[in-house]
């Protein structure tokens, strides 16, 4: 049964990548992918009643991302904070607190979870797969199925970009490998479809990831994201 799960995990990753031709010191470093043209920012709100929702917004509109669909709300006048609404959904945001009303059901005292919002932002920016690791801190993003962006932090942020090559896939081992070169560097990425736990946060991931950049080796965890929001 475990081998079947690993098979479908790596198959799922392969389909996503083929279909699209923490240092955690600053938000710019965390969001390596190319921002969407509308320059929206993503949030994952957790409310006092246990309800949670993902939203993206700019100055003129907001979107609420439900599992089955994304609803866009237009800007509406509010005396305090910002208000976005359509015929049956309204989002109020004031400072760090949000309130969402859906079909007359209200979820209030909703606060953004920055750790989860990072992943929502990456998805919004067109990232298909994202991984990270510690000691030293590093982040890997495969953007829109074509670009590989890797960054690590050791006293300063080092950022590397590559054009994604066709992967080598071993379904029996639930393993996918990417090898790419740019003018100065070579990168080898190994993604294995097996459970992985972040060594600092304890967060659970679907993939075990190893990155070899020139003569440096980095290990960590990752997850596949759907197409950009």
Summarize the structure.
Helix content is about 15%, strand content about 50%.
Throw out a few tags for this protein:
229 residues; mainly beta; Lipocalin; 2 domains; nine-stranded antiparallel sheet; eight-stranded antiparallel barrel; 3 helices; 19 strands; elongated
Q: What this model shows, in words?
A:
The protein has 229 residues and is mainly beta. The chain has 2 domains: 2-34 and 126-224, no CATH class; 41-115, Lipocalin. Helix content is 14%, strand content 49%. The protein has helices at 2-19, 27-30, 114-124, and strands spanning 41-46, 52-57, 61-65, 70-76, 82-85, 89-94, 97-102, 105-112, 127-133, 137-143, 147-153, 157-163, 168-170, 175-181, 186-192, 196-197, 204-205, 207-213, 216-224. The strands form 3 sheets. A 9-stranded antiparallel beta sheet has the order 12-11-10-9-19-18-15-14-13. The radius of gyration is 19 Å and the shape is elongated. The chain starts with a helix and ends in a 5-residue tail after the last strand. Residues 1-8 and 15-31 have low confidence and may be disordered.
